Amino acid sequence: MTSARQSAVDVLVVGAGAAGMMCAIEAGRRGRSVLVVDHADAPGEKIRISGGGRCNFTNLHCSPKAFLSRNPHFARSALARYSQHDFIELVDRHGIAWHEKTLGQLFCDGSARQIIAMLLAEMERAGARLDLSTSVDAIDRDEAGFTVRLSTGPVRCQSLVIATGGKSIPKMGATGFGYQVAERFGLAVVAPRPGLVPLTFGPDLLERLTPLAGVSVETAEVAHGRTRFREGLLFTHRGLSGPSILQISSCWHEGEEVVVALAPDVDVIGRLKAARSAHGRQSVAAMLATLLPRRLAQAVCDMEAIGGNLADCSDRVLERVALAVNGWRIRPEGSEGYRTAEVTLGGVDTAGLDQKTMAARSVPGLHFIGEVVDVTGWLGGYNFQWAWSSGWVAGQAV
Ligand code: FDA
Fold it and tell me: Structure pTM?
């Protein structure tokens, strides 16, 4: 792709991530002259590292229900106009093999780099140009459009698209740039915070549970109020991770509790009582180890200070054990923060944006797309689908 040094384009897109590239493709296909700039030295870096290098590029069950936003209806229009099926069709057209891993999550069979190559090929075909290692120094607006002072020189554009993502993983070039642009033009920003992030324990719990680091449960149920997710859970050196924890972290706020069921499909009290009748001399820990990883079973007993055999346990004691397994209430101390968060919750307030075009209502020609907007998906390919859908609709309007 050649570097552009022109001083005027129809559309300037800041950010060559998932949303920015999709927007550039669509605008270019409509005959608009498009320049995409990014301060990184490679496009789509988050695509490259996503899904363990295989990019969970969408979800078969994508629907507005899988997104968090101050306005839960905002994403509806873009998701309907450019759906998961449209993106799958694009992937198929490029001959990229994929598979469903679980829960509708679609991954490349090969590498996430195939998705980046596909987007770059589509950009080239649409005539959209890409300037990497280019930063934005200033933005000025007049009646005819914008003058954007880039590190490579000034560029005039009619439409300016901010696709700079959220604050997650700063070491990969994530910045709060998009929020600053929004505020500079008078748009409200919903306070950003890390989402899809491991939760951390305070010192007391950490000391007791650190020996469990590396232990995992294939299916746990983690609840926060009425929201619950049933997926894997992992003990780490700092607290808890795994898909169920990442999911609930997006609903959780500091100071709040989450409730964990470590064996959600098991009637633990029924099983304990049956075992007491049949094998009274079995230890409680040994019995729990038939339901949970052995180290975890022992930790549950240690936390409840239960050391004896099943026959020595009253119904009340067994009920306490069952509750520790399937109603474990924890108050995480915090999260691992933007350093490891997969997404940033909050962002440009959707109240100031047109859901059909992603344009700022009060600033004609200024659009915000992708993660910088206050729309955040669950884990499982939903965040990329939002990037594709919001990029696509903006691409029809710029
Ligand atoms: P994105 O962050 O992709 O792109 C923003 C671009 O703007 C970057 O290229 C950046 O360099 C550039 N930029 C930032 N500031 C700038 C500035 N001031 N000037 C110029 N350029 C600037 N989602 C999913 O659906 N499936 C998955 O498998 C995963 N996996 C995953 C793994 C990991 C480790 C992370 C961190 C995240 C995921 N995600 C995910 C989330 C997904 O990566 C994310 O939601 C999208 O990449 C968001 O796309 P955007 O285009 O909005 O931003």
Answer: 0.96
